[in-house]
Amino acid sequence: MNDNYHNSLMSKLLNLNSHFEKLGIIFRLEEQRYASNSFSNDFTLILTMQNELYRFNVNVKRQLAGNTAINMINDKHYSQNNFNTLLVADYISSQVEEYLLERKISFINASGKVFLHQDQFLLYFDYPNKSNQSRVLGAAFESTGIKFIFHLLNEPGSINRSYHELANITGVSAGSITNIIKDLKRNGFVYTLNSKRILRNKNELLDQWYVVYGRKVRPKISIGKYRLINSPLQTQLPKGCLWGGEVAAEFLNLNLRSQDQIIYTEMDPIQVIKELRLIPDENGQLELLKVFWNTDISYEHNNKVVPGILIYTDLMLSGNDRNIEVAHETLR
Q1: In which domain, by residue range, is 250 found?
Q2: What pTM value is reported for the model?
Q3: Nearest in space to 287 (alpha carbons), one of 207, 214, 216
Q4: What count of Cα atoms within 13 Å lies in the side-chain half-sphere of residue 162?
């Protein structure tokens, strides 16, 4: 676990304090130096209610979804090493939440749900999570900003290039870049050290970026839906087309068998439809999308798939538990 992600989760837990105070609960965290061992505790949460003290060993996960999460919960070594465990994650699927509730295993879903159980103590409530709303306003998350941030997420080191160079690379004007970087600085994603700009809190920026991309950009670049292509891994796409989503994850040898298909293209859509013999279908599971980034930059893992950041985004936006479980593997 990296420091930025750990600190982000700690901050989200501390934001829960006002909810606990309303219930007459005193809340505090005792930080430990976290380790990479999956059975280690990241920090301790201590609750005091009516002079009774309850201690939970917090185990932080980025997300809990699908059979991988359930197998971890069932692992005897995990259960033996995690007495009074509290699982905390940015995302917990409804399936895993139900599984944890049935087994009375405490969890906090950072998207807005708390379940704590120990001896006679039981606490279960939903809470409004303001952190789920993008806190970046202004130019950073308008259309040009979304395009520019996509470049930074793929090449964080380029943040220190001149605005003129960045404009030539991304196709975003230098004036717009000035405003975008001001917004990123104001929101804690860029800071200056020894006259150099540095991109920080990249994971948090990505998670905000893909939500706004899905809301503001993706609907505009959608060309249409079509019937599935048989054997996509064996299908040679025309030049200027790249696989996204589940098929791209399959190309990267991730543990996912594609059902839906996404193709990004910079070609004339009519030509793509003809060459691939796509059959329009408003309920089709293949979606054709326009490329929105500079394809002259080699972000992608190979010449058949879109950049990993976009594969991650497609999988997260699908809302499919298995896809969300696999999504983080695309960033390794």
Answers
A1: 221-331
A2: 0.66
A3: 214
A4: 3
